[in-house]
Amino acid sequence: MPVNTLTLIGSAAAIMTAGAVALLNWTDGPKHSQARTPAAITVAAAPGLFSHAEPGEFLMNERPVPAPRKRVAISQPLEIMKYQVSLDEYERCVSLGACEAADAEGSGDVPVTGVSYLDAEAYARWYSEATGETWRLPTDEEWAHAASERFRSDIEPLEQDAQNPARAWLSSYQREVDLERKADPVPRSRGSFGVNSKGVADIAGNVWEWTSTCYARVTMAADGKAAETSIENCGVHVVEGFHRTYMSNFIRDGKSGGCAVGLPPDNLGFRLVRERPAAMTIADFQAQIRRLRREMFGA
Amino acid sequence: MFTRREALIGAVVAAAAAAAIPAFAAQAQTADIAALPRQKVSLVAPPFVHEHDQVANGGPKVVEFTMKIEEKPIVIDDEGTTLRGMTFNGSIPGPMMVVHEGDYLELTLVNPETNEMPHNIDFHAATGALGGGALTHVNPGEQVTLRFKATRTGTFVYHCAPEGMIPWHVVSGMSGTVMVLPREGLKNEKGEPVRYDKIFYVGENEFYIPRDENGKYKKYESLGESYDDTLKVMRGLIPTHVVFNGKVGSLTGKNAMTAKVGETVMIVHSQANRDTRPHLIGGHGDYVWEEGKFANPPAKDLETWFIRGGSAGAALYTFLQPGVYAYVNHNLIEAVELGATAHFTVEGEWNDDLMKQVDAPRPIPMN
Ligand SMILES: [Cu+2]
């Protein structure tokens, strides 16, 4: 069964965690019918270093400036769900009274959509309890790391003119037009958008994902490197997908409205990362799985 | 061959003519009209308007237009919601026809055999015969030509008006605009000439798309199948979509309207069925003919203007500041949630005197 065929391949390893084992064994017979909540398939993205445009709005000398880039180091393997949380998975939380019903679209093995940041947080809480593990939304940096070559930061204006603020508005409007992204509102079955180089599925498809990173407005110091002041607004969180954008915590439909200028997310969903207690080697991890399996099934 | 239908329509024409004008006068006028110069105009789809002179060049003429009626499914939003559309010339709204006061507008209306429905046209700019509706009833496979004299200036709605089904045809897309310009061009309230550098034609429509038991918009295989359900939604008077130019987002993104600082833009706004209130966010209406009729002096410096359902209005604005402007129906629920939003992108130099961000957003000082 899955554990035997488990392969850990360098940077991108598909891992079935203990809960998934429970699910697969459930079909063996009625004695396991009270199986625990199935854990999601995850991918372990190897540690890495990358240059990252910071999220938020940045000002220098009273003018908007492009987001500063910084070196981000992910020092431990990042264990992130390979797929976005599915409608079925989410429904389980709803049926147990721990989540509010989503304004979901589509059916079958589709990602849950029509969920707010608050819904995603509720799911993470419930899922952590149900699995006995710590699951949470990824930060912006973690998401960018997992998204790898499919990551796209904010659609920033190509032009900034201190004398003419309209240059920025017009050039970012034009950039969005040039991206020629057509609305694509119907969620597709999970995996439809393929996997990226890290083995993570459906990055930058038609479901944008909530992160745990708050929106911030940052005034840069004169050197353009350090923040002079930074005001965080955690009523708004970073949302990632085809592009990075920001949404109020209670929003479930990112495309509501066509008035505001800006590329709206087709759908809002999420995936979680599994918090690992401390740096764990692959050998440790395999040992843990063996232990869990023993505990649960006496195998 | 002389079919019963042709005979019937012929009889109606004769009756209407006889009722409207004495025979002698009619003959004399017909001879006069035959002597007038004729001009054939090719229509263009909105938001654009066919080329035209603002000040009439020469005397009255007969201006010929042809429109083909197209019944077709039309996707009206990003979710793929489909309207069983009925259109003049394939677009919602139908194209704008521009003539001058005293000209004769002559329209040939073609209803191809592939269509399901009979149609006609009621010109609010025309006088008599239900605006021409009584003389233009065409079944699939027929065409008709109507001429009317443009006796009043202004922007006027036209729409389909088949007996018993008028509102359905109108809210399925069959409306458009005629603009009759004064021969000497537009004037402001002091009688001074005003001109536009550009004209855009925004037709606003509201749609009533039926939903299934799960709340999803229904799709229909034919117009006939959609009729009963659609009528039920229409009777509730709550539209599911309120859009410009036939579709949510038809005038945004790569289809946004464009202008330059210093350019004077005429925006004609028509709504054949329901009241609306255009507003240019960040701009104004320098001169606005709210009712659309140029014999009345324009209102000045409006923030929002009112377009009565069943009319078209005209607003003139000279852009003073560059940027991205939203042009909306200022019932903002209809603009933002139901679709009635367009954009203008305007290039040019920023004017700090008109507006300046004195202090960028920053933490509130504490002391
Ligand atoms: Cu009709």
UniProtKB/TrEMBL annotation, chain A:
Any one GO molecular-function label of the UniProt entry: formylglycine-generating oxidase activity
Gene3D superfamilies, per the entry: paralog of FGE (formylglycine-generating enzyme)
InterPro entries assigned: CTDL_fold (IPR016187), Sulfatase_Mod_Factor_Kinase (IPR051043), SUMF_dom (IPR005532), SUMF_sf (IPR042095)
Domain of life: Bacteria
Alphabetized UniProt keyword annotations: Membrane, Transmembrane, Transmembrane helix
Membrane-spanning segments: 6-26
Record Pfam families: FGE-sulfatase (PF03781)
Domain Sulfatase-modifying factor enzyme-like: 54-274
KW Transmembrane helix (keyword) present: yes
This protein's name: Sulfatase-modifying factor enzyme-like domain-containing protein
Automatic annotation (TrEMBL), chain B:
Annotated binding of Cu cation, by residue: H119, H124, H159, C160, H169, M174, H330
All copies of domain Plastocyanin-like, residue ranges: 78-184, 200-350
GO molecular function, one term: copper ion binding
Positions of transmembrane segments: none
EC class: oxidoreductase
Cofactor: FAD; Cu(+); Cu(2+)
Entries under PROSITE patterns matching the protein: TAT (PS51318)
Localization per record: Periplasm
Protein name: Copper-containing nitrite reductase
Organism from which the protein derives: Aminobacter aminovorans (Chelatobacter heintzii)
